[in-house]
Specification:
With 471 residues, the protein is α+β, with helices and mostly antiparallel strands. It folds into three domains: 3-327, 3-Layer(aba) Sandwich (Peroxisomal Thiolase, Chain A, domain 1); 334-355 and 390-471, OB fold (Dihydrolipoamide Acetyltransferase, E2P) (Beta Barrel); 358-387, no CATH class. Helices cover 25% and strands 28% of the residues. It contains twelve helices and 20 strands. The strands form four sheets. The chain has a nine-stranded mixed beta sheet, with helices on both faces. Strands 18-17-16-19-20 form a five-stranded antiparallel beta sheet. Helix 2 packs across helix 3 and helix 6 runs parallel beside helix 7 (229-239). The longest helix is centred in the middle third of the chain and has 23 residues, at 189-211.
Length: 471
């Protein structure tokens, strides 16, 4: 049977207190805060971050497929899973697919991955999910949403077994967004919760428990997605599951991220799970999916994996609602259209997406981008392609007040990094305070959206500071 071999999560650095959002519009505030993706982040870059977290200590070349689940794909017509696989430096002879159109997309992708592993068509598939949903300004939805990503590696081998998949389908009242809508829409919240969410979630949960002959008391955790904690409690009560066994819905700390919520909650549950535990997972969205996760052994710590807990600890407060509005481009203004080249993108995909460098076979120098002539010994066409490390330290830097052709009051740090294992790269910094940049500072390299030149999403690598405690 298909198993979970690893898991990961990603929560953006920035948080915005819901009180700040309420004060901006003079409306009541929902308690807590929400996670906010940076201006250079989207569902694709967050999926790469969650996938990187999940694959900590695992060779990406051993994975046979990648499934990406989202309702906010950067493209309506272009597969995102292939881009994510390239950024994770996976093989090209793998199966990639996008799952979308429903908040249940992540568990749909997970079940498809489990079926592929069970059938023998793949030995392992990475399932990543991310969303960056937008709600109409001033609405309550704007406060309740949040951004994030989750990932699981489905394999023939692993500490946890997947059992008892059951799904319910059918049209139901719930959140929707048409192809020409920028913001999500909904009807009356109570009707959606009672006749849409609770009904289908309870039906799926009961079917799993009955089919697998598991009593509610046998469960160590209930991973039940919900738009708010109270709705999840009602589902748990109908299933006979105590509220103290419910995994945190992340409503107070992240908000409702949509499709990836189930994988983020599952990551949180697996971080504290132990051998013998049974987890009931229920995910809702135009119906519901349910299944059991049973641990045969503990998950071993993975060096380099932050997990959900690590990402929740690492955060920075956005000072104002205006900063959030700027990130999400809620205010219209003239934009510089930088140039992009599809030919260059295709030609240099191993440099741009795979983040490969070159090593001179004569003198051993590590170089980026990959040249034909070694900069150290001038040997020609003796460069072998290698993977570069994603961590390094600052060799030198500058603080640039010009960004996209206009002056910015907060400078953008441009860093020259010496990579671990060799090589030197020049990258822009994000998710950090320019005043804290210094020579020798540790930094990690992350995948971000660079610009929208030529009406195309141009992705590339940036860097961000590594907290001193982590380094």
């Amino acid at each position: 049977m298909a198993k979970i071999a690893s898991f990961g999560a990603y929560v953006p650095l920035y948080r915005l207190a819901r009180e700040q959002m309420a004060n901006a519009w003079g409306v009541p505030a929902v308690p807590g805060e929400r996670a906010v993706a940076n201006a250079d982040e989207d569902s694709l870059t967050m999926a790469v971050a969650a996938g990187t977290d999940c694959l900590a200590g695992i060779d990406p070349s051993t994975i046979d497929g990648l499934y990406f689940a989202t309702t906010t794909a950067p493209y309506d017509e272009k597969q995102c899973a292939g881009v994510i696989a390239a950024a994770l430096d996976m093989r090209t002879d793998i199966n990639t697919a996008d799952f979308t159109g429903s908040l249940r997309a992540a568990t749909t992708a997970l079940r498809a991955a489990a079926d592929a592993v069970d059938s023998g068509s793949a030995s392992s598939i990475l399932v990543v999910s991310a969303d960056c949903r937008l709600a109409e300004p001033e609405s309550m939805w704007e406060q309740m949403l949040g951004d994030g990503a989750g990932a699981v590696l489905i394999s023939k081998q692993g500490p946890a077994t997947l059992r008892g998949f059951h799904s319910t389908a059918g049209e139901q009242v719930g959140v929707w967004r048409r192809s020409d809508d920028r913001y999500i829409r909904s009807f009356e919240a109570k009707a959606e919760t009672r006749y849409g969410y609770i009904k289908s979630a309870v039906e799926a949960g009961k079917a799993v428990l009955e089919n697998e002959n598991v009593a509610p008391g046998d469960l160590a955790k209930g991973v039940i997605t919900a738009g708010d904690p109270r709705s999840g409690w009602k589902v748990a009560g109908s299933l006979g599951l105590d509220n103290d066994k419910l995994e945190d819905t992340l409503f107070m700390s992240v908000g409702n991220p949509g499709a990836p919520l189930v994988l983020m909650m599952l990551a949180g549950a697996l971080e504290g799970a132990k051998a013998g535990d049974k987890l009931l997972v229920i995910n809702n969205g135009d119906g519901a999916d349910g299944f059991l996760v049973e641990l045969e052994e503990d998950f071993a710590p993975a060096p380099g994996r932050k997990g959900l807990a690590g990402h929740l600890l690492r955060k920075r407060d956005l000072p104002t609602y205006t900063a959030y509005a700027s990130f999400r481009k809620l205010m219209k203004r003239e934009e510089v259209d930088p140039r992009g080249s599809a030919v260059t993108y295709w030609r240099d995909i191993n440099i741009v997406l795979n983040f490969h460098g070159g090593r001179c076979t004569k003198c051993g120098a590590v170089l980026y981008p990959i040249p034909r002539v070694c900069e150290e010994c001038a040997t020609k066409d003796e460069i072998e392609e290698i993977k570069l490390a994603k961590t390094g330290s600052v060799f030198t830097f500058t603080l640039d007040h010009l960004e996209a052709g206009k002056y910015v009051s907060v400078p953008v740090p441009r860093l020259v990094l010496d990579l671990e294992g060799g090589g030197r790269v020049f990258l822009s910094m994000t998710d950090g305070d320019p005043e804290e940049v210094k020579i020798g500072m540790s930094a990690e390299i992350i995948f971000r959206r660079l610009h929208e030149g030529s009406s195309f999403h141009n992705y590339y690598w940036k860097c961000r500071p590594v907290p001193e405690a982590a380094s």
